[in-house]
Amino acid sequence: MTIIYRFSDDHIKQVHQLYKSVWWGKERSLEDTQNCIRGSQICIGILDEDHKLIGFTRIISDFIYKAIIFDVIVSASHRGNGTGQQLMSLVKNHDQLVKVKHFELYCLPELESFYKNLGFSTDVGGIKLMRCSNS
Fold this sequence. Notes:
One of its GO terms (cellular component) is cytoplasm. The chain is of the alpha+beta class and 135 residues long.
């Protein structure tokens, strides 16, 4: 496996295909995917032996207090073999993120146990997620 931090046009197309494989990413256009990757401070990809993207995540951070992890995706054919754990380890041990105090992410209830095993908790002092749509 190969780890990448810079994404060629072909890699971005592969990220877009990963988005299409998950319910929350199906509506994303290729242009949105390009802008999303370019607008994120850190992107991490895992390629298989054939140089096909099998895992992806992106991070936005102040590099001191918080790093928000977005879009953790592992291709369906590679789930359950440690790729997701490897992605999260790459995030936590990234040179620019090792001093960050808190990592945060959103996840579905069925993924809570996966993230709890990696040290994440839903106990965040009563903080609630709030959202406002930009019309």
